[in-house]
């Protein structure tokens, strides 16, 4: 039994939050940079060298990506080694954006830039009129700064209102008003793509980008330059362009134009976790990351037993496989993550109301997953009525099925006759979302072979608490009911076993 945010599983921070591991190098002028033996290499060469170094050391090439080791990552590694721009194609919630952002870790941690450059120009390889003029005027005294890899990532969600100016650039009327002529390249206000020069640029949901806007990316991918309003602006851009797309988008909302698809060097298909263990690992890695709080505050770090995480993972997989669910839209990993977080929140609510010292999730918290996750599922035969109770019944049935599967997997061969005998004389045990752990255990008295049950469910010996014991016992009671060895009656908020 562990907290949802399992510290044993590495998590990769996003480019916006990943702090530098080392201080910036010392050289502050072009002369110092040259005397130190610095050289220029392209972004793709930089990624290739760092990727090969990780492969040679046997390290994870893209840490934090779960379930892709034998499928997606080899294809992606080959594309990066070949220096290809690429498209990640897969259903929603398969980690495409996370995968793209993780690529930033393959860049050098620090890279030199001309101080004041809008295009992150390398001091040894200036590409703009401004950059070349700086070096011509200042020579070896040209100021040099250092850019961290987290600042070398740009992305744009492809929305219908995206313009060529947003991506590529446009004439800046303020610069024209300051006296520059329209033919002066320095009147240009650069867009997101050139401002990510010497970095990685991502276009999320590329098919949503209007076809006339997609045309603006053709030169970026092939000739590696940009064109702005007829100006002869020759900028040899140095970047890796990565796009993501959902297969459903090709028919429902748009498509990637054929010339643009042809210019991408590789298309990599993503997928949902293939193995149950990967699904559970993904839950531990991603759930409750936004809760934060003090480490010693139990209400900021609720315990979700391993068997409940497994139930949520199995439930997610059953929903994905259900014939009632639209297979084209898929079931996002966010479905499982939100479900586990809702279960944890239910445990926190109970602990706050009933006075439990440590929030521990129980089976009684599982029904809260249904209303929280219903909006994340597209049903294949959905009716006109948005309140169709049949959808709820389908999800409730699949949740019971996932619970039964988990019980059989985790409690196979476990002797629960002592627990069953408590009900032989007609006794009952009442539970509910607000019934505290001591009250639940008090109805059962001494529970035979409790230590064996706790051990089977992953509770370390010596770390038992009333809340953890109650979670294990309630799971056993629910399992006995689902395997038709115990009766149960429920009215939504109140559950009575043995009734």
Describe the structure.
This protein has helices at 30-35, 43-57, 72-81, 96-102, 129-138, 164-167, 173-177, 192-195, 211-214, 218-221, 249-252, 258-263, 276-286, 306-321, 333-354, 369-373, 389-411, 417-421, 437-442, 450-456, 466-482, and strands spanning 2-3, 86-89, 110-114, 144-148, 153-157, 169-171, 188-190, 199-204, 239-245, 266-269, 303-304, 429-432, 488-490, 494-497. The protein is α/β, with parallel strands linked by helices and 499 residues long. It has two domains: 2-269, 3-Layer(aba) Sandwich (Rossmann fold); 276-497, no CATH class. The strands form five sheets. The protein has a five-stranded parallel beta sheet. Strands 12-14-13 form a three-stranded antiparallel beta sheet, covered by helices on one side. The chain has a two-stranded antiparallel ribbon with strand order 1-11. Helix 17 packs across helix 21 (466-482). Residues 2-14 have low confidence and may be disordered.
Mean pLDDT: 87
**Oligomeric form:** single chain
Beta-strand portion reads: 5-15%
**Unreliable parts:** 2-14
Q: Give the tally of structural domains.
A: 2
Fourth-tier CATH superfamily name of the largest domain: P-loop containing nucleotide triphosphate hydrolases
Offer a few descriptive terms.
disordered N terminus; 2 domains; elongated; single chain; alpha/beta; 11% strand; three-stranded antiparallel beta sheet; 499 residues; five-stranded parallel beta sheet; 38% helix; 14 strands; Rossmann fold
